[in-house]
């Protein structure tokens, strides 16, 4: 409180109504009162006494003024004066101020964004009590956390180093709360999960280890706070309600606290259920097949990770010797919980570290550029500074003023940068590129981020403020006043210029790459996919989630197809396990063998095609050409001979050519023979880079699957069908969760990587452009400022405008042209790398070349505008008079 | 009033220090005390006291604190600090030397040169 009071006092000193002032006023008033008392005592009436006292006091205002001066200013007041002075100076050169603030805002903003990514992923541990002792188990060299349920139980019961071990697994299920069934992500967790994490429910209760009574026991749900908030509107009555998961009844028993969003940073669940409630006895009792995502627990106090690893490894050895068929060597190690060990943490760490380094370099470059701008300003003011030195001002005082200016700029830039990055981060946090996957990396800036950004702003202020120090310390007032600020004009290339050239070149590389990426992206949007996604609506569901099994699945799929056909505006309908390029996450490769192979082993595999299970209409709806043979018919059912359609790559890989493949047989891993009845044209299936992916299409009636993706070719905008599709499907089964999107939208998601790369390059390019701009601005301004007198003489001798400009800016322009060309060439080379990220990126594109030249030229024009104006407005008469 | 002397520049501070050295005083009190100890021989405009007071406070020779006067009014009281006491001694010596030097100079008769 005392500190606050003194602060308030100091602030009030700054803002006019100073307490000292008030005290002074009071003291003088009381003086008059005392005098009046005395005068009253000798017989004057009070009013007269006061009048007399005021007269005797003398010039009230004058004495107050003198008193204030005599009392002297505080340090803060003189700082305030510096600030006002600096503000006045900055207002006088709005161009400089704008450039400086913009540059700093960009550089500090970039740092703030990168740092909050670092903060959110690596620095901020999981939001649970005692996060520092929470570890996840990793098994084997392949750094995988997954384990089978029986093995988990052994680790849980046999270890001596953990307070307890919990396990969790992420999966997607159909949830029916009575209205609008949806597909949601949940964590299947062991009963002790919440107890081991030591968290308390927001409302209701959690389930516990004691609730587990074997398979399908403990049908309890704990909602995440977010899901409770968005789907139950914070209704406390949600607890106790019955809902259906995959058509089985569950009871909501509680809601997790708001800050708890699961134990894996990259996927936050909508709710939690016990593992035993969802899995059947078979899955729970199988020791082979590791499927539970991660095992976590708090180390006991005093136990080191090495001791724990040794303990766990002895259990691993025991499991290996006891169950040799199911378990190999385990090699258990511990990793920090939250990022799934090395699998995510190491690459993330490297990525974020690289980003941080880049952001740091950007800030340093910004400081260097601003430093030279500052040097220019100091040089411009050398006469003023000299006069002040001559009049007895101390160098420290002058430096303090320069630093005040630098710090003001850096703080303003920092504030703008933080504000901008906070906005950006808020949008980034809310942004979810994959609606099917609820990633939750809360990027919202916290106090750490603000503190780091403010610190960076401060440091950069000091850094670039320090550039002109030497200049001021060395300046000899006598010399400067005598000769003006004329400095020796070096012709040699300075370090500053080399740095600037490097910056410009990097900027040109980035601009080139981002243009290449944009063009590539545009082109890949219109490339040949081997099918026609326009006007197709995808309705994706999994009948498994709606509780269908066995024979009920194809029957339901048939009803679904029929229902879709009756929707007005639907041209044709097909069913597949997964539409190509729709990121359905269900496409898997299967091993196939030639018909002659009898020993089906990994070494005899002929090809590993992706497997599509489709209804006969698929090729028509997708407009995927079948080049030879026939497509499926409704008669290709379980009673008919097994058939397949393969693509050209498959045919070429296994049979040599399409012609040779038609009519031939191949085997799948269980030994079944399939006859090839058709050859489909190659296309893109999983990613746009698929150029040589073999694929086989099987009739869904012969290879049934509960995964059902309806494809509807519409006569107009497919989005308009969405509502009708949803309601028809609900008519069929009110509890069936569906995900509806247009095929082009799904494709956009496939392009996510390229988009991200493009955006990132664009952002970096923009930063580079800003930096280059300040750099060139600084250099040009410096050269104009240093050569003012020479330029003035040239003007006086009749130089034309373009000659003046050439003299003033020639060097900067030359540097820009040289560095840009170098950067462009480098960028063209670098774009080969880019082709790996952005499909169809090629630098051999006249538009790209023209774009780069245009961009660099505009940077040059913008950056030299102010110095050029200054050079052109030189008034020789005035200049010479001043000198 | 006409027999009052104009104050020499710089002497007000000395007078203030001297006045306060006799005990804590508020501004008006200092004026009264100066009048009292100088036999009302000096002409001081009352307001002129304050710049001097603030200057001495700033130099650390005086310290000030609010209190209540004999008139039962609030008033700011000034007292000497250790530095103030030391300065008063020095200034008094300086003054005495100056006065005797000036007096000696002014009192010199032509035949003594």
Describe this structure in words.
The complex is a heterodimer of chains A (883) and B (113). With 883 residues, chain A is of the alpha+beta class. Chain A is built from 30 helices and 21 strands. In chain A, the strands form 3 sheets. In chain A, strands 13, 14, 15, 16, 17, 18 and 19 form a 7-stranded mixed beta sheet that branches. The two termini of chain A are 56 Å apart. Chain B is an alpha+beta fold. Chain B has one domain: Arc Repressor Mutant, subunit A (Orthogonal Bundle). Chain B is 51% helix and 18% strand. Chain B is built from 4 helices and 5 strands, in the order E-H-E-H-E-H-E-E-H. Chain B has helices spanning 11-21, 27-37, 49-58, 82-107; strands at 5-6, 25-26, 42-43, 62-68, 74-80. A 3-stranded antiparallel beta sheet of chain B has the order 2-5-4. A two-stranded parallel sheet of chain B has the order 1-3. In chain B, strand 4 and strand 5 (74-80) form a beta hairpin. The longest helix of chain B is centred in the C-terminal third of the chain and has 26 residues, at 82-107. Chain B is elongated and about 60 Å long. The mean pLDDT of chain B is 84.
Q: Can you count the beta strands of chain A?
A: 21
The total count of helices of chain B amounts to 4
What structural class should be given to the helix and strand makeup of chain A? alpha+beta
Name the chain pair whose interface involves the most residues.
A-B, 26 and 22 residues
Quote the beta fraction of chain A: 5-15%
Number of strands of chain B: 5
Largest sheet of chain A: 7 strands, mixed
What string gives the helices and strands of chain B in order? EHEHEHEEH
Known CATH architecture of chain B: Orthogonal Bundle
Note poorly predicted spans of chain A.
485-490
| Number of separate domains of chain B | 1
Proportion of strand residues of chain B: 15-25%
Strand neighbour order, sheet with most strands of chain B: 2-5-4
The chain-level mean pLDDT of chain A equals 82
CATH class of chain B: Mainly Alpha
- Share of residues in helices of chain A: 40-55%
Average pLDDT over all residues of chain B = 84
How is the biggest beta sheet of chain B arranged?
3 strands, antiparallel
Query: Pairing-aware structural class of the strands and helices of chain B?
Result: alpha+beta
